[in-house]
Amino acid sequence: MSESTAGVEPVFCTIVPPHVLDRLSRAEDSALSGPARRTLQRDAFERTQRRLATVAGTTAAARSAAAAAGEPERTVHDAGHGTELPGEKVRGEGDKPTKDATVNRAYAGLGATFDLFLKAYGRDSIDGAGLPLTATVHYDKDYANAFWNGDQMVFGDGDGEVFLDFTLPVDVIGHELTHGVTQHTANLAYFGQSGALNESVSDVFGSLIKQYTLGQSADEADWLIGAGLLAPRVTGEALRSMKAPGTAYDDDVLGKDPQPATMDDYVTTDQDNGGVHINSGIPNRAFHLFATALGGNAWERAGQIWYDVLTGGTLKAEADFAAFAKATVAAASSRYGAGDEHEAVVKAWSQVGVPTS
Known about the structure:
alpha+beta; six-stranded mixed sheet
């Protein structure tokens, strides 16, 4: 679809997959199971609210008259451990940092995401038309998640046992905001392979936002999603690994990271909207292979091709991995010709078992 919001169907997207929280909810230790159960219940409620709001036809806020094109318009609110959104405004665009590090991290993360999309791809905010960026921090008590609800970002403080403050990893912020970009462009259906692509695109740009912020090349990057989010008691380094799907964590409570790295291990399941957070490991690894084969800054050639596909208007909402892969090959040829980019993207998809012809 086009850059227009016509036909947009925003989905409720969380950074921590339901299958992870479901496992935690069954832990014998109530310090682990209690917050996980409450988080699942809150997520279910917010998901229902998102559907009702979509049916009612709510409209996201437009850029204010005082805001200039190509400049972010950020607002951070504090829910005070309640659940009413957006909460009390605590920092606006251009305001000085507050004494609350969580507020400042959220503000900076919104800005980092805005900067990457504007400076690398010429996109003015999430919708391409200067959409104000709103975030709420300190949401609920021991809330172990962060989400994009179709209009704004929301961050929990974590339970302190398994998950820490969700504003800590900038790629988590970038991941969730990229769901908004997808919402306003390809609008990938949130189920099965198209849903896994939806999640993968958010991981890709979440990682690119971190790399851009840190000034890292593709070879220097860790390619982890959510590094620094897991508490010290957890045996793991992140929520997901784009470089090596299935290796992010292996913990007696969380279990083992279930992401497959190739189509040989594709997971067929009715849970998690058909495994959207699980099978996203396959296109994630394809992007990593592609970006590292090209070298340099991943947000440049590799990221540009993924952005071209996402925003080009030809990708169907129900696209599967093969359709997306073919689109990246076409985009590589269109932008760069029959050179290194074309060869590298074909090889990357081949290595994960996705056909491109």
